[in-house]
Structure formats: C-alpha cells, structure tokens
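S1.2 Input.
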Amino acid sequence: MGPSASYDEIGRTYGATRHTDPRLAASIWEGLGDARTVLNVGAGTGSYEPPDREVIALEPSEVMIAQRPSGAARVIVGSAEAIPLPDVSVDAAMAIISDHHWADRAAGLREMVRVARKRVLLLNVDPAMWNRFWLAAEYLPESVRLVLPEFRQPGAWERQLRELLGERIELIPVPVPHDCRDGFFGAFWRRPHAYLDSRVRDGISVFARLDPDEVNEGIAALRTDLDSGAWAERHSDLLDLEELDLGFRLVVAERA
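S1.3 Output.
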C-alpha cells in the first residue's frame, strides 16, 4: 500500500480503539525468537512491544507518542527511512502494520536490515489479497487504488521482500480473531456494525485516505444491507468462524 496522511492529523483518537490483541501479540513475540533488544519502527502507541525485552520505539508523530502509556518503551522521534541508530545495534527490528505509511518503503526496509543483528519482522496484509476482505471488495471498491500497482499481482510483495530482506525469509499466515481487540481495517470482519461508528473509522487510516464521499456512500450501503439482512445472508458463512485469513502475514527474515 502507498503512504498515507500524517498521524499528527489522523491519529488523535487512535488509542481509543486500537489495543493490543493478545493472540496477535503471541505470534509477533514468538517471531522475535531469542532477540533481547528490539527496535519497533513506526511504533505508534506501542501496542505490540514485548514487555520482557529491551525495546526502543521509533515514531515520527508527536500525537501518537503522546498516547503511549506510562511505562512504555523509550521513544526516538524519527522515520523508518533514516533510523538514527548505528549498524547492527539491535537484535531485531519490527514494524507492525506500519510500513504502508512510510514515504519510501524500500528505504525503510533497508534501514531495518542495517540495524538488525538477527532478524527483521513485519506484520501486514499481502497487498494482492486486499480485496479478500468484504468491506473493501463490496463497499469501498475504490480502496484498491491504495495498493501500489506493482504489488497487486500475487507473489509481487514476496519478491520485493526477498530482494530487500534476503532469501532467509518466512511468511506466516496470521488469521484475524472474530473478537480482535485491535481495531484495524479488517478487525471487525464478523462485527460489521462496528464500521457504522465514526469513532471506529477514525482509528483506521484507510478511511482517512479515501474520498469522504466514497466513504459515506459505502457506509450508507453497508447500513442498508445490515438493516435489511442482506449482509447477513450474503456472509452467513462468516458468522460461525472463530478467525479468518484476510491476508495478514508475519514476515520473519533471518539475518546472515
């Protein structure tokens, strides 16, 4: 996905709807392996920073930094494209649902490789799977333009990851729980009424990156389908699922 608006503009209520989901956290922390020092790039409010390791948070937005809880890891103000740390200065560098916001994603990944001794971790959606989520495909079809054209074909994202992070890489599916506590774009796949709440949408950057008229039209159509029962009829197969693969992948790249 391409870069978005600044979180100094869109992140003011982020902490109200975006919380650590323990199941996602477990997957991320397992991926960190034996790393004792961790750099969290695009750290935001620090939702997935492991409490039992030494963490350095890198975050460009003062608005996001202000929402970090007391006792959170120390923060360096800066961007992924120019990490203000020496080479191989941390065991692991991670970026959790944040690299699509960077102005130069390739430069940010190279910087993560530069500072990490053992491994680099990413968690995000494979862009080619964007339309796997019903909200994008059915109600916000224009949102596909947020996906950079070069990543719309299956396998394109993984090829770039291998070019930038090396061949010692694993992409691990991370399904989204039906009651996910972290209110990102796909979190409410079984709770569609949540998207009618402007407070929920305010914590999701996708809505800020789309034309307001497109968003209003899509949400109005969703409301109509929920009221009529059309959504439930069309998506009855989702209603008993505990989790769903929406294309999120935990990328673990081992350093040589």
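S1.4 Remarks. Residues 7-254 form a domain with the Rossmann fold fold (CATH 3.40.50.150).
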